[in-house]
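Allow me, if you will, to draw on your knowledge of protein folds for a short while. I have a record of one protein: its chain in single-letter code and its fold written as discrete structure tokens. I should value your view on which stretches of the chain appear to form regular backbone elements. Thank you for your consideration; the sequence and its tokens are set out here:
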Amino acid sequence: MAAARRPGRESARSLSSPMSVIEVSGPIRLDSRNYKGYGLAMTREQARLAPNPGLPGAQRSLPAFAAGGRPSGDGPALVVRDLTVTMHRDGQTNHPLKGLDLTIGRGEIVALVGESGSGKSTLGLAIQGLLPAESRPQTTGSIVLDDIEVVGAPERTLRQLRRTQLGSVFQDPMTSLNPTMTIGRQLREVMGGDGDPAKWLERVGIGEPVGKLRAYPHELSGGQRQRIMIAIAMCRRPVLVVADEPTTALDVTVQARVLELIRELRDQTGTAFLFVTHDLSVAASIADRIAVLYAGRLAEIGDVTQVMNAPAHPYTAALLEARFTIGVTKDRPLPTLPAAAGEPEQGCLFAPRCLLVTAECTKVTPELAPISQHAGAAACLHTEKVSAELWTRVADAWPADPPTRTDTPVVKVDNLSKVYHRRGTHDLTRALDGVELSVDEGECVALVGESGSGKSTLLRIIAGLVLPTVGSVAVTEKQPQMVYQDASASLTPWLSIGELVGERLRHKVSGQTKLDRATRQKLIGEALARVGLDPCAARLRPHQLSGGQRQRVAVARAVVVPPRLLLCDEPVSAMDVSLAASILNLLESLRRELRMAVLFVTHDLAAARFVADRIVVMQDGRIVESGPSDQIVRDPRHAYTRELLASMPEHGPVTA
């Protein structure tokens, strides 16, 4: 009887057959007649031993795996070729991925970066065979994971892959962990009796691992839940882990520890990572190579050090310029990328936003090709004109002066404490401990600190959503307005944008009468225009808008009746750099225009310095330091503040 074949092996072998290969002993060279398969024209032995394209062996090499790591196999961990994904929803057809090629070597960390909507998460879901069925996805091309073809594979094969050879870590672990099961039970379910769950918790840095096995997800901090997700993803020693924004919602100190943990586990096990992120500084701190995705196509790929220091695509240069650092002040608005004007029918997809666009760019679609700036590749017709300073420009001045601060507080917190009882025990968790805080009229105060420091608890007590255990809160406004991190969760999905924004106008009166319909529609249109949206968007539903547009709707709803105090709970932490900059610019512009006070919760000290007049640092439910923003950043007095600053990813030139 013929020997059983491993699923997908023939299709995996066929990947390199149409392409000629130049045999060399150094870095891989490509057949100059075909750049479409950049990174794929290599033998299995070359892929295992030779440096990856864009990753010169003389500059950076992959780690030697520790004893007990997964065998290296006979080829790359992942090979994606000519991948196109088509989705159909609400009567519309879109192509989030268009002819994508990507190779990830065993033990390699590749960072996938790009704006929201660029296709990053779609690629991760396609690799896992988890594209949403309601979008009726159609996939063409090839995805080969550990010699097994994913595209077209039966569900049984995909489940086995996800169980043994493919791990995943998502942005919000609460949506991945079962809230009805203990951590120990969830780990044992994945491990299948192979290994000790407590040892894996210890390995990912969870203290008191035996006790944590009995805990439920809601009883742990955000950082602890993310570490547990990493343990679940790694405990079977997979070939590849897809990490989709795993550190986005984490504070800087926890983020630094999680990134270090991922590097250590990669070195110990030889697992490869596809690390999806919108934060280029995070990508620079963890990745071997970086792949820049724009509108479903690779714009640039190469060694992370080289790409960050010498970008060869104008989009990469724009992303680098849009970053805001701890050195940025609020003298002028942050620079942002030009708004996307829709995808052109032909030519370069980035042409409508590009500073280097020519007539040729609107007719010819550039393919990935080797470039002079570094040993990787870029898809641009004018790479020789690209530099890191291409998008350097001085932003326009603010439209209004900052509001005049008074000594009249809009909120005053006195000796505030909040205590929670732990389920099934007599233990108490003290979320706030004797907090004293005031925010003056026209002032912006930023609350910063690690997860569990009490920032969001304090904000929710001020908003009237949570009652304090001890202490008092005096607010001059009956109901301060609040902008949340996840606009999707705060906007009712079945209401139109106009209905959502107009909710606060229902009981607003002009003189002695309620506002008539025409006046309400006029105010709704003005509110949408104030936050940079077309008033016609009032007819749409939240799911028809992008993430950034939904956040602008949330801001419009908060300011349609200008509040004296605006509460913001991590409003930009999940956004790409340009989108975050645009929202921060919007909030500062509205503060100046409407003369309102702002209390801004964030774990990003760079964002805190930009928006705030004063920074308040919280640790373990207490305020440990408070002062003017510039003073806190330049001359921190408390050791914890210095630790927060030291944990921030580097934003300057990257060194290997």
Remarks:
- Confidence is low (pLDDT under 50) at residues 1-71, 652-656.
